[in-house]
Amino acid sequence: MSSTPAPTSEERETGDGLLTRALGWVERVGNRLPHPFWIFVLLAAVVLLLSELLARLGVAATDPASGDTVTVTSLLNAEGFRQIVEGVVPNFVEFPPLGVVLTVLLGVAVAEGSGLIHTALRVVVSKVSARWLTFVLALAGVTGSIASDAITVVLIPLGAAAFKAAGRSAVLGGVVAFAASSAGFNASLLVNLTDPLLGGISTSAAQLVDPEYQVSPVANYFFSASSAIVLAIVITLVTELLLTKLTRPIHDAEQAAEERGETSAPDHEEDRPALTEENLRMYSPQEVKGLRSTAIAVAVYLVVYFLLLFVPFSPLAGQDEELGVLSSVLITDISGPIGLMFLVAGVAYGMTARTVTHPAAVPELMARGLKDITPLLVLFFAAAQFIAYFSWTNMGTVLAIRGSEWLGGGDVPMVVLFAGVVLVVAVMNLLVTSGSAQYTLTAPVIVPMFMYLGINPETTQMLFRIGDSTTNIITPLNPFFAMTLGMIQRYLPRAGIGTLLSLTLPLSLALLVVWFLFFLAWIALGIPLGPGSPVQ
């Protein structure tokens, strides 16, 4: 790292203009918020108190679907206390996102720990021509969300090294990688960990209205996969038409700093050498063989998967004549097949590349991967209790009914409702950067409310995803914002937060606007968002 320290929020405010002062304020406010765990604990306590107050006031609403009267039920009584104590373990164990996230992550952890994802990204980025470098780097970042946050850690130095090797600004390469992997996190060519996670939260929220409703982990896949291409194109166009011009002085300054010896080499990762322009195109024979073995193994796996899915006499074929293959357990419980695919890929690569040398290494990699999400499990425990209390008191249902009546009575255009959700989520994301935490907070309200307006949970979930990721790259509370700033200072020691914001803000705004317009066009054409998702 450079000896030049990263600027503090106070220093940013005095030197980088109005926008930076505003973001400095966001940083200070966000840092004063309690940990999401305590937010859910406090909200659970608020729900208990409000349930008593609203029950005494006789607050109720009429369900427009059944005609039944729904009243708020207090939990501050003997029966409620028993229900709270008895439900602690079931609430957590039966929390819908818990099982699917753990199942998928077991496979992803092996693919990541074996080095497969790291090597595949390095090969893809280094093999393309300079003309296609920006697009491929952007597409790799958007799709790389299969590796969760690991993609950002890997891709930022990789993008900087790739751009520098092509004679372009290393700062710009790192920013492109940051934007693609962070702002495009909720889109991907492949099903990733976010799909079952948000699907589980949507299921919990939808069941406040319809106890039998299930949101599939692939509910947004068609739109998400298409969005990956669209977002990569947007990042490419903004980069080539605008940011390349803006970074010409930055590129000159990088070269001058390098000549003066002010730059520093990227730090080494724990298990791998640093990604530099010198070693970007260096692959060992084992790595190349490992990728070939992976391609063969995944191809065989997919052939078997689709045979089991489509062959009529398959024991796993769909049993519902109307739904066909969509009723197959391979679709309705797809988290298992997804996790198994990553496991097969990781083992195939690891055995060939000799990063997995004995059977015991596989569960060790799984355990290491699960260790990384222990903070999420802690958050799930508190969130599960909050959602259960919200459901038991009927507050969510009453609020959704009243809210839908207000919105419906006001004849608010659907486009305005959609835009409102996206903008509110985008602004909230500046302070609450955890997508799962934010969706767990908002889903119990917006999902049922929109259901009463005739908008299915799959559509609401996708609206959340659009607003949630696009502002990741302009909030100082995103830990990868600081990481990217540190990367910039390796190549340009005098750079500050204003330097980074001048590059990420155009990308954030362009992605937010274009992605939302693409969503509106998709809905207008009546295309399902994913397999089995109702057409809105």
TrEMBL record:
A GO BP annotation: p-aminobenzoyl-glutamate transmembrane transport
Residue intervals passing through the bilayer: 37-55, 98-120, 132-158, 170-191, 221-243, 291-314, 334-352, 373-392, 412-432, 439-455, 470-488, 500-525
Keyword presence, Transmembrane: yes
Disordered as annotated region, ranges: 254-276
One GO MF term attached to the UniProt entry: secondary active p-aminobenzoyl-glutamate transmembrane transporter activity
Protein name as catalogued: AbgT family transporter
InterPro entries recorded: AbgT
Entry keyword annotation includes Isomerase: no
Keyword list, A-Z: Membrane, Transmembrane, Transmembrane helix
